[in-house]
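Recall that a protein's primary structure is simply its ordered list of amino acids. Everything else, from secondary elements to tertiary packing, is in principle encoded there. The following example makes that idea concrete.
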Amino acid sequence: LAVAAAHALRDCAEPSGEAALVAALHRVHEGVAIASAEALGRVGDPSSVPALIDCLTGNSLLVQLSCLDALHRLEAQVSLELLEPLLTVRPLRKPMCVPAASASTAR
């Protein structure tokens, strides 16, 4: 139900629902936090930037990526020290290429 509410607020993009969306960022259910971050990015109110930045640590990777996307939509300035830990997350790093000769001998 909370996910559906966050999606509804996102779809109407009303700034009046921002307080509820910010509160939902800290919900236990990952889907609620993701939907809320997406909605905050769509609403476009820069006052949600601090809450989105707070969610860059201590949350699941999907929540962090949703918050990063929202911050990007809001054209927010985020310090490198906050972004640096996210750059070490394996799915975000470019995989190393293995030369064809090495790949066949590694089997």
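The mean pLDDT is 77. The radius of gyration is 17 Å.
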